[in-house]
Amino acid sequence: MAAALALVAGVLSGAVLPLWSALPQYKKKITDRCFHHSECFSGCCLMDLDSGGAFCAPRARITMICLPQTKGATNIICPCRMGLTCISKDLMCSRRCHMI
């Protein structure tokens, strides 16, 4: 019982709470640097070939070029927004986001 009271007193005083930086980070917004697509609110961590890093980018809209989500950490081209499917309508064209 005494240990529980000490813990409650510590939490109330702020002594037991972890530092804000130690808490899980919120999802990153568009243009923030990233290492994995799961870090981004959009779910797309796009490779930046100019700087050698990666940044959070929006998902592809209708008729935009796309690639399905890969198992890798970063994307070469972003996957489609929710409700769209990344398909190729003919063999000569690249994949694009379409409503099906």
Automatic annotation (TrEMBL):
<keyword id="KW-0732">Signal</keyword>
<dbReference type="GO" id="GO:0008047">
    <property type="term" value="F:enzyme activator activity"/>
</dbReference>
<dbReference type="InterPro" id="IPR001981">
    <property type="entry name" value="Colipase"/>
</dbReference>
<dbReference type="GO" id="GO:0007586">
    <property type="term" value="P:digestion"/>
</dbReference>
<keyword id="KW-0964">Secreted</keyword>
<dbReference type="GO" id="GO:0005576">
    <property type="term" value="C:extracellular region"/>
</dbReference>
<dbReference type="GO" id="GO:0016042">
    <property type="term" value="P:lipid catabolic process"/>
</dbReference>
<protein>
    <recommendedName>
        <fullName>Colipase-like protein 2</fullName>
    </recommendedName>
</protein>
<feature type="signal peptide">
    <location>
        <begin position="1"/>
        <end position="22"/>
    </location>
</feature>
<keyword id="KW-1015">Disulfide bond</keyword>
